Amino acid sequence: MYTDLPEADLRRYVSEQVDPADFDAFWAETLTDAATHDLNVTVIPVDTGLATLDVFDVTFAGFAGQPIKAWLRVPAGATEPLPTIVQFHGYGRGRGQSYENLLWASAGFAHFEMDLRGQGWGGSTSDTPDEAGSGPQAPGFLTRGVDSKETYYFRRLYTDAVRAVEAARSLDVVDAARVGVMGVSQGGGLALAAAGLVPDLAAVVARVPFLCDFPRASVITDAHPYRELGIYLSTNRLNTARAHDTLSYFDGVNFAKRARAPMTMTAALMDPICPPSTVFAAYNNYAGPKQITVWPYNGHEGGAWEDDALTLTAFREHLRQGSGRPGGTAVPESDRWA
């Protein structure tokens, strides 16, 4: 059922999130520090038994030079620079197995699938630890290190995402000028962060994105993972202002203001995990060309396979010439590029 604003109000909704004065300086310093570490990209072929795709086990240096795993999948025998999709995953997931997640490479793209440090319990596995410690936190990752922007978990994860784009672009099989980012839920939030931090991406797809509009998300839903904030602040109640100050440096709303790449977003009006107002908070602030598809009767699954079709359409349009919507279905006029 609907528990958020009507769609007409969603399209006018303005977040109360603060845009910190030193937001850009903080991220410039963070990424400059990361750049002091060589990317150290290693690429090892994996024998998957697949006939149509080649798969490689990739390691690169993320935040603080710490090793991050990824999969690279390409059409079998590909050597020329390909349009490339860098994918980030949802909360609790990891890169999974080498023979999973074959759609994007099967469609002709190079597919760079980043692992998530310390995650990997929610339906797929991870091979990347989070090497940093933490002060008090609620179980999960949303409050890990939230006492300061320097120690917050998502500082490390967002930096990993930027470095993943750089690592992908360093590969001969990747066309550095035709790289897009995508993700669902937390992955959508990471895609928005990358869009705000990497100035020359070719396309962005953020499906039912998480990590947007923390001031509203923390009070409008009792579903996890946002519930972790409520649990933490109900005990550490004197830290409320400090925690929200930290979160303002990691909010998709503020990254959206700085993003310029063409962006496709989806929202589900019955989503209790990423309420549609939090998604529209980022969409309404997005500074580049954008479109959003709304699914009125769906929850956090969004449009599922329909969103896969929208994703392929977006990347075909912006990463290479030609190609319409799979199956020949026209994109509704109301959802065309703004």
TrEMBL record:
Annotated substrate binding sites: Y91
Gene Ontology terms, MF aspect: carboxylic ester hydrolase activity
Acetyl xylan esterase domain span: 3-303
Active-site residues (renumbered): S185, D271, H300
Source organism, top-level taxon: Bacteria
InterPro entries xrefs: AB_hydrolase_fold, AXE1_dom, CE7
Gene3D superfamilies, sorted: alpha/beta hydrolase
GO biological process: polysaccharide metabolic process
Name of the featured protein: Acetylesterase
Organism of derivation: Cryobacterium psychrophilum
